Amino acid sequence: MPLSSTVEPTPRTLSNPGIGSAWDSVVTLAKPSQSFNASGVYLGGGYFLTANHVDAVEIGQQIKINGTLYSLDTTFDTDGIKPISGVDLKVFKVVAPPVLPSATLNTNGSLDVSRYSVLVGNGVGKGTEVINQGWNWGDSTTSAKRWATNYTLNATDSLTLSNIYGYSALGTLFYAGYGNDTGTVSLGDSGSALFQFIGGAWVLSGVPTSVQVSGSSFYNRGPTSPVPSPDYSVYVRISDYADDIQAAIPEPGTILLTILGVSLLPFLAKVTQVRG
Known about the structure:
The structure is a single chain. By secondary structure, the chain is mostly beta strands. It has helices spanning about 20-25, 155-165, 240-250, and strands at about 25-30, 40-45, 45-50, 65, 70, 80-85, 90-95, 115-120, 125-130, 135, 145-150, 170-175, 195-200, 200-210, 215-220, 230-235, 270-275. It folds into 2 domains: about 20-95, Thrombin, subunit H (Beta Barrel), CATH 2.40.10; about 115-275, Thrombin, subunit H (Beta Barrel). The chain contains 3 helices and 17 strands.
C-alpha cells in the first residue's frame, strides 16, 4: 500500500483502487529540504490532518505538500498548527492551499471494527524478503503513493489496543489469510489514511501512527509456531475524535461528516511510531 511495505509498486497498486475522491485527499508531506517524510489528509478549506509526531509540520517552517512548498496560515490557532489533545493527531492550515478533494470523517464508531478497509499512504515499499515471514522495508527510493486492503480488529481487540495506547485506536494485522492485496503500515505512512465504505461513501476511519516493529513487515514473526503471529499496525480511531477535529476548525462546513474479526492480539508487543 502506499502505506505498505507489503504490496509491490505495480501500476495497479499505484493508482486509485476505486475509492473515489478519497484517493486524492491523501498527500505527501516533507520539510523544505526533503523529498520524502510522511503523509497527510486534506480536510478542505486549507486544513490538513496528520499524526502529531510528524516533524515535517513544524512551527515557523514551510511545508512541502505533494512536492510544492506552502506556508502555514498563522491566523489559525496562532501558529497554523493545532494538536488534538490526548491523541497522536494534529490539524494544520496552509496559505493558498492546493485544489484537492476533502476527506469525509467517519463519525459512526459502531461500524468501524471487523470491517474491510483500504489503506492509502506514501510509505516505503518492499526491500529484501525474509522467506516464510515477510519483508524488510525498502529505502526512501521505494516510497510511493499506493494502496492495500485489510480488515480492522474486532471490538474486543480494538479495546485492548486502545488501553495500551491510552487513546481510542483501531488495529490491522498483516495476515496472509486476507489475500494478496493485504498490506501494512511502513515508514512514511504516518498521518495517512484508512478508508472504509460506510453509508454509501468512503470515509476516513483511521490515521496510522505506529507499527509493531520498525524496519520490517512480517506476516509471521514466529515461523516455527503452530499459530501465525502477524505484525499489527495502529491507527487513531477517527470516529471518537471527529468532534475534536471539527472543533479545531473555526469555519463550519469545511469538512463533510457524516467482517471478518480475527483475535490475534495475544501476540501484542511494544509498538513503534512509524516516524513519517
